[in-house]
Amino acid sequence: MGWINLREFGIKDSLILKFMKEFKSFESFIRDENLRILDRDIRAKVLLAALHDNRKFYEKLQESNIRLLEYTSDDYPENLRNIQDPPLFLYVAGKIKFGERNIGVVGTRRNTIYGKVSCESILKELLEYDVNIVSGLALGIDTIAHEFTLKKNCCCIGVVGSGLDKIFPYESRKLWERIPENGMLISEYPPGSEPLKWNFPRRNRIIAGLSQGILLCESYEKGGGLVNSRFQRK
């Protein structure tokens, strides 16, 4: 589980991904014959990463019931692995059940009554086919989708733009507690990460990458829902 140490010592994600694709494990990567071909500066950082003791980090994850999935993990979702810019690490709380039928639900934070009724009506039919609902835990359509899915005792996957210990928005705190009971919360950001505004557009690619289809319920012309549907088309 040493891949994450490379990031801590300043190695760019694009290079870490290259190493991950080439080597099955961090242990095989740090063999002498592999390190010799690296640039001196990169080799020094890799050696420091290999020596770094991160037991406290993993103990904290375990105490918080958070599991770390690396790009090379068997449980890492294959659909997500194949997108253009896959997250190297996923922090997961709850039951890992990505499944083969994931539908992303996106839309405005300022939904109308029509948007709510339409969203629930479509979800009612979709959930009869044993699909997982993937959304971003924002206010509005995201919240409607998660709440309706939980009401039907179906599986929710919530993709967030902060560490799993940083609830955002605060109004969604009850959903953060309920979703892991019959689904999972996912973030590419480690515990302690604040919900910075640029995290949320990047979160959209994960929702799209996990989903076989996107349900856009209601969105303004430049809304995040339309951005997400464009990710899905790519």
UniProtKB/TrEMBL annotation:
InterPro entries: DprA (IPR003488), DrpA_SLOG (IPR057666). One of its GO terms (biological process) is DNA-mediated transformation. Residues 69-228 form the Smf/DprA SLOG domain. It comes from the Bacteria. Gene3D superfamilies: 3.40.50.450. Belongs to the DprA/Smf family. This is SMF family protein.
